[in-house]
Design brief:
about 500 residues; alpha+beta; FAD/NAD(P)-binding domain; Rieske Iron-sulfur Protein; 2 domains; nine-stranded mixed sheet
Length: about 500
Amino acid sequence: MTSLWLDRTHTFRSDQFHPRSAFDSVVAGAGLTGLVTALLLARSGKKVLVLEARSPGAVTTGNTTAKVSLLQGTVLSALRNQYSQKVVDAYVEMNREGQAWLLRYLEGRGVAFQRRDAYTYATSEDGTDILRKEMAVAQAAGLAVEYVREPGLPFPVKGALRLGRQAQIHPMEVIDALVDDVRSHGGQIVSGVRLNGFRGLGALLGAELEVQTDHGPVRAGDVVLATGTPVLDRGLYFAKLKPLRSYAAAFELPGTTAVPDGMFLSVEQPIRSLRDYPADGRRLLLVGGNGHPVGRARSTQAYLDTLIDWTTAKFPGASLTHSWSAQDYQATNLMPFFGKLPRGLGRVYFATGYNKWGMANSVAAALDITSDILGTQLPWASVIHHRVTSPAGAASAATLNAAVAATLARDWAQVGLKRLGESRQQPPEGAGLVFRRGRKPVAVSTVDGTRCQLSAVCTHLGGIVRWNDSERSWDCPLHGSRFSSTGTVLEGPATRDLRQVD
């Protein structure tokens, strides 16, 4: 599975990593959050190092549907159910500033993007009630949202909300521009190096930090965790986030079929997201949806297959060109987390929980983190930071963690019942299974004809990993860590690979 955005010949050239070197700021993660933060700090004169375990944009940013919109499905009405209108207004202003900064930046750098109207649509009468609630909250927050009967889709709908002149991007073209710009301001970007800890180098609050990596330490005045979910457990944010996997596919339509003109998102489940992509004189259709908690699907391939089947039914003759999946994090209280990491000695910052709307939220988080490091403050940020968690948000967190505990206990019990004889089974190509060898859970898979045996215990908090048949990976159902078939960490909060088993 390769996303439309990552299917290219461009090769990233890493800067050289020098252990024990010193920087003003170290940023972990070279997605949109990390690179915008690095650029803003480098522009201010800071000596900046960006550490990326894989390559820039390889994880969430390179697998997004890349909509830069202030109309975000039913996010605003969901927030209003937990917070005051003042907090919702601050969230809208945060996204407005993030969107405006990004589009100004792209215009200044000559990076193409397309203006599109954004639509949230309903296919049922119950869905139209949801639309009207969202419209009321959006209009109260100052968005010029209007209700329309016909949004221009080739299948029946009951109604839709429209917000004009939003935008869509090619995320890897944005990443390329940011990489070049960070380097032009003296910043360094290193791939293949993973941050896995830090310690203070002095007793005073604000003392310099030693940043620990799998290639040796470096020193920094500040550290920014822009890693999707924080890869350090201080603050326990892994317990406040729902890791969600969703799917996307690109299609070429026959000449007689028009691609809908706009960016679309349904209110009913399963979610359907649609947008176009102009490429080489043609317009591709991008369709996304079918989200579910990470590691808890019987077959991830089935989720992708139903998405493809839905598209070909609604758009006869559609021809699949690419398919992929992405991981997003939803905060239990629905509001993104960003700012100073608890127990981070006042020098460690983080951002997470964009709830699938990272194109504007990530830039806004970068603006806030940079402002804090440089000693300034953004008006909307103080409202976001000082909000009070609602009872609904607290209940959601309690429910999430109860489910995690139950999953942990059940999976260990089920592994304990599996026969030792299963260790001699050879999974078919593309398959994986978990069994018990003695008292130890073992994960075995066959990929490209190679059989690989690993510890089945996630290196984060001991969950039993499960096989992902569409991406041929091992996924943890507790907090969303993912590993390749050979055990390499793909996504955190885990920072250590699965151990090989002879």
